[in-house]
Every structure is written in C-alpha cells, then in structure tokens.
Write a structure and sequence with these properties.
There is one protein chain. By secondary structure, the protein is mainly α. It is built from 18 helices and 2 strands. It has a two-stranded antiparallel ribbon with strand order 1-2. Helix 1 packs across helix 6 and helix 12 runs parallel beside helix 17.
C-alpha cells in the first residue's frame, strides 16, 4: 500500500513546502487548542446567563474533551481513506458551525450539545494537521514545521485564559461570554477560504473498519468518562467498572485489529521503537500539562484571590519561556538528538520545584519557576511529536496521528484525575498546589528516564 499525493513528499533541500500550507494548518491548530482552555474563563458568566448548575458547567468542559478523545483515531483513519484535505475541511466546517451554535446557545443543554459537536470537529481536524505536515512538508523541513506546530499549540494553551478574559472584559456588542465562541467564525472562514492551498493525500485502497470504530470509541468513552466524572463524584462504583471495562474493550479491539486486512490502526506501528515507546513518553508528558494548568489556575484564583484575567496574566510567564525555546527547538534537537527531550523534562523539574518552594509567598516569586517550566515545555513538545511520527509510512500517517492525538487527550484526562486527587487531599490550596507540583516533578523525572529508550536521532 502506498500513498498518493498531489504534492509528493521529497527529501531534497531543493523542494519547499507548498505555499499557504502552514498558515491554514496553524490557524486550525490554534483555534482548537484555544477552545480547550478558553471556556474555563467563560464558565462563571455562562452560569449566570444560562442559569446552569454545577453538573451542566462540568459538561460544557467535559463534552468537548470526551468527543475529541473518542473521535481522534477514527478521524485519522478517515483522512487516510478519503483524503486528508477533504476531512480537514469537513472538520473545519463542523468546528466553525458548532462554535456559532455555542455562541448563540439559549440554554445550557444546547451549549453542551454544541460543545460535543465542536469536539467532533476537532477530532477530524487534529489528525489531518499532523498527517499533512508529515506528508506535504519535505523531510528536511519537518523539524521546523513541527516546531511551529508545537509553538502554536502551546500558545493556544498558555494564552487561552488571557484571550478569554480580554474578550469577556471587552463585551463587544453586549455578547459577553458568547464572544469566546463567536470569535471562531471569522477565523474559521478565513481558514476555509485558503483550504485549496493544502495538497490532497490519501492511502491507496482500504475501507473503514466499522466494527473497529465501534470498539475503539466505546473503549475510549469507557476510559475517559470516569476520569472526567470520577473526581467530581468521589469515584462511585460505576467509574471503576467503566475503567475495568475499557481494558477489556481495548483488548478486544486489539484482537479484532490483528485479524483485519484493512485495520483501523495497523498494529505494526507499535513495533517501531520511535512510535511505540514514544507514545508512552507522550502520555507522561501530557499527564503533566493539563493537570499543571488546572492546579495553577485553582491556586491563583481560589488560593490567592486573583480574577480570571489576572490569573491569565500570570500564565504569560510560561508563555515567555515557551516562546524562547519552542521557536528554536528543532535547532537544539539537531545538535542534541533525543537528549533535547531529556533536557526539556529536567528543566521542567527545576521550574516545578522552584514553584513548590515559592508557593505561599508573593505571586512574583512564582514567575521565575513559571518561565523555567515554559522553557522546558518548549524544548520537549515539538521534538517529541516529530520523534513519534518520524518513521511512520505515509499511508499510515492519518491513523498514527489519530493515535498520537488520542494519547495526548487521555494523558490530559489521566493527569487531571491523578493530580486532582492529590490537590484536594491537602488542607488548603497552597498545600494542594505544592503536593501536586511534587507529583509532577516525579512524572517529569520518569519522562526523562523513558526518553533514553527512544532512538538517538
């Protein structure tokens, strides 16, 4: 099986990336990352305007994350089969329309349903972004392209709260929180106008394994749903049964895939050290990201009494460090190989430990640790993504990208559940923040050790 491309993948330095590819892909990447985090700022206003209860607010966040995690593997395979540009465009339309529906939602129930549609749109978008980068960009230029991708992903995460706070404060046309979603309309339309600049690519032959789609979707829902609901409900029996059921479903999915001539996920991918072991590293990395953003926001807003906008401003210290290294991560990786990831993980340990010592003192004492943590994040994110996908054959890039993106999301969910337990066991917000940071330090040390199993280059 081979891949057919309108713009072939080449390795010569004489070849360049098709014009317009990066702006479209990075616009979509920023939009989907932003909407994962920006909603946190909007929740208090949503509660007042729509008279939403705590459970409804939780599902405004969880609906997006659950639909995204459950749909990524299928979304990646659809791109392999039916064209990555086509599925990217479909996802972009769905995400943009869903954003408008969120922005005009008259009730909390409509908002939750629209957030689920947003998650499904993002599940179609995200794997195609990575797959198109892998197939349309010349091999020699891919490290720089993935560095830009990592930079954009990080900026959407770090500055989500700042942008959301500014939009709500501006209150243009009296839209208040709704502007956090409606802002996606002009951005999405601008990306759609330039969609034709993306080269089309797909795998030759094959069909969609509908049984595999059902099994992996059920397995991911059974895994992610209790991780989202468990901490809020004090881990009732159904959450443990669901987690156990997810293990069974994943096992059945694996057996089913091994017997298929056109599997949803080719299990041979996991025999490649860069992919199989790399996914474990990705899981550890992302376990530490969303959980850190969560406990930092809780500490700043509830422990120190900062507003959402003030809290978002503090996050900019991470962004400064992240900008410093993420733009040059590909150059550092060219010199250090896999040890750029080791260095990034250990630098994050220094930043996290510094914040643990500074917690309880003035906010200014946190800033150096935040900047150092951002430096480590910037060194690790893009090279890690490049490493995992580096040996994947072109015809499997969509499915592989879907698996990678799924691991990102499940890592976020597992990390939030784990650190949430530690955080809320403490006597106060400062103690919870410190305890969470210590666990995160252990995770980053584990990441540094695991990276030694990856290929040197």
């Amino acid at each position: 099986m081979t891949a057919t491309l309108t713009s072939p993948v080449v390795t010569s330095r004489g070849e360049t990336t098709p014009r317009g590819v990066m702006p479209v892909l990075l616009t979509a990447t920023f939009m989907t990352a932003l909407d994962f985090f920006i909603v946190n700022v909007a929740l208090p206003a949503v509660q007042l305007d729509l008279r939403a209860g705590p459970a409804a607010l939780q599902w405004v966040v969880a609906g997006y994350g659950l639909a995204l995690a459950a749909g990524l593997i299928t979304g990646g395979r659809l791109g392999d089969l039916y064209g990555r540009r086509r599925i990217f465009g479909l996802g972009l339309v769905l995400f943009t329309v869903a954003s408008v529906l969120c922005g005009v939602a008259p009730t909390a129930e409509v908002l939750i349903g629209s957030r689920v549609l947003q998650g499904l749109g993002a599940a179609l978008l995200m794997p195609q972004t990575l797959a198109i980068l892998r197939t349309a960009v010349p091999l020699w230029a891919q490290p720089k392209a993935f560095a830009r991708y990592g930079l954009t992903l990080g900026l959407g995460a770090v500055f989500g709260q700042v942008i959301g706070g500014l939009l709500i404060k501006a209150d243009l046309f009296g839209l208040d929180w709704r502007l956090c979603f409606l802002i996606n309309l002009p951005i999405g339309v601008a990306a759609l106008v330039k969609l034709r600049t993306l080269p089309e690519s797909r795998a030759v032959g094959g069909r969609l394994d509908l049984v595999g789609v059902g099994l992996v979707t059920a397995a991911l829902v059974a895994l992610v749903l209790p991780l989202i609901q468990g901490p809020e409900q004090d881990w009732p029996l159904w959450t443990w049964l669901s987690l156990a059921g997810s293990i069974v479903l994943f096992a059945v999915f694996g057996v089913h895939q091994s017997r298929q001539s056109h599997p949803l996920v080719n299990l041979r991918l996991f025999r490649q050290p860069a992919f199989g072991k790399g996914l474990l590293a990705v899981q550890l990395f992302w376990m530490g990201q969303a959980s850190f953003f969560l406990i930092l926001a809780l500490y700043l807003q509830f422990g120190r009494g900062l507003s959402a906008l003030e809290s978002g401003t503090v996050f900019m210290a991470i962004g400064a460090g992240y900008l410093l290294t993420s733009t040059n991560a590909h150059r550092i990786a060219a010199r250090l190989g896999r040890h750029v990831l080791t260095a990034g993980a250990l630098i994050m340990v220094v930043g996290l430990a510094s914040m643990a010592v500074a917690a309880g003192h003035g906010i200014g004492w946190l800033l150096p640790g935040l900047a150092i943590d951002g430096i480590g994040m910037g060194m690790a994110l893009a090279p890690l993504t490049t490493t995992v996908l580096s040996k994947v054959e072109p015809e499997h890039t969509g499915a592989a990208s879907g698996v990678l993106s799924t691991v990102n999301q499940t890592g976020n969910a597992v990390g939030v559940a784990l650190i949430g337990i530690v955080f809320y066991q403490a006597a106060d917000y400062t103690g919870g923040f410190q305890a969470g940071l210590i666990v995160l330090c252990v995770l980053e040390v584990g990441l540094a050790a695991l990276i030694q199993l990856l290929p040197r280059r």
